[in-house]
Amino acid sequence: MSTPVVTDKWAGNFDCSICRRKRLVGSEFSSKALERFRKTGSALKCKKCVSEQETKEREAAAKRRAASETSGTGSLGNEKHVCASCKNSLPQADYNRNQLAKKEKARCRKCVEKAIQNEEAGRKSSREDKISDLKKKIEQMNLKGDIKEKVRLESELSALEAEHVTGLKPIKMSSAGRGSWRARAGRGRGRGRK
After folding, report:
1. Largest Cα–Cα distance in the chain?
2. How far apart are alpha carbons 160 and 51 in whole angstroms?
3. Given CA atoms 42, 47, 53, 58 in this order, what sign does their dihedral have?
4. From start to end of the chain, where are the E strands?
5. Upper half-sphere CA count for residue 179 (Cβ side, 13 Å)
6. Dist CA 57 CA 83 (whole Å)
7. For residue 11, what pLDDT is reported?
8. Where are the domains of the chain?
9. Axis-axis angle for helices 109-144, 147-166 (nearest 10)
10. Of 54, 43, 52, 38, nearest to 15 (Cα)?
11. What number of other Cβ atoms are within 10 A of residue 29's Cβ?
C-alpha cells in the first residue's frame, strides 16, 4: 500500500515507483528522471530511493573488494594514490574507476560522497533562502506601495515555487518580436487590390 505524503506546504503530481509514495513534488526527483518521465512516461525513482540503492551497491562492492583481497585474487594493486581533497595517501581500493581515471585530480570515495551531500544540501538551502528573501522583499513592497516592483517579485516567487513543485525551470519570454502581431495577422496582405 502506498504512503501519502502529509505536508501543509506542497502537493505535487509525481509518484515514486520504488517506495510507492504519492503526490511528490518535482524537487524529490532528479531533473534527468523528470525529463525522461515527460518524454517516455517511464517509471520515476525519488532521490531518496536512488541514494538508498547507491548505498547498497557501495556496500556490496566493498564486500566483494574485501573478499577478493582476502582470497588474494584481487585485481587491484597495492598502489597508493593521493586524494586531491583530503590529501591522504590511500590504497587504490579507496577510489572508484572514474576517479582513478582523473590521475592527480582523483578523490577518494569518502570525499566524493561528502561533496555530493554538501552540494545537495547547498542546493536545497539556496532555494529556500531565495524563497524567504523574496517573501521579505514582498512584505517591504507592501509597506512602500510600489505595485510594479511587488508584481515583479511575486512573479519571481511563484516561478521558484512552481519549479519546486513541478521540477521545471521557468522560461523567460524575450521582448523580441514585440508588436509583430500585425505581421503575423496578415497586415498588408491585401495591398494592391482594388
Report:
1. 97
2. 25
3. positive
4. 80-82, 89-91
5. 0
6. 22
7. 55
8. 1-75, 123-166
9. 150
10. 43
11. 24
Ordered per-residue pLDDT tens for the chain, 194 residues: 556 655 555 556 788 888 888 878 888 888 888 888 888 888 889 888 988 888 888 788 778 777 776 766 555 556 888 888 888 888 887 787 888 888 888 888 888 888 888 887 887 778 788 888 888 888 888 888 778 888 888 888 888 888 877 777 777 776 655 555 555 565 555 555 44
SS3 state at 174: coil
pLDDT at 179: 55
Residue 47 phi/psi, 5° resolution?
-60, -35
At 11, which amino acid appears? A
pLDDT, residue 180, reads 57
Contact 167, 29 (CB under 8 A): yes
DSSP state of 95: S
**AA letter at 102:** K
Do residues 17 and 48 make contact, with C-beta atoms less than 8 angstroms apart? no
C-alpha cell at 78: 597495492
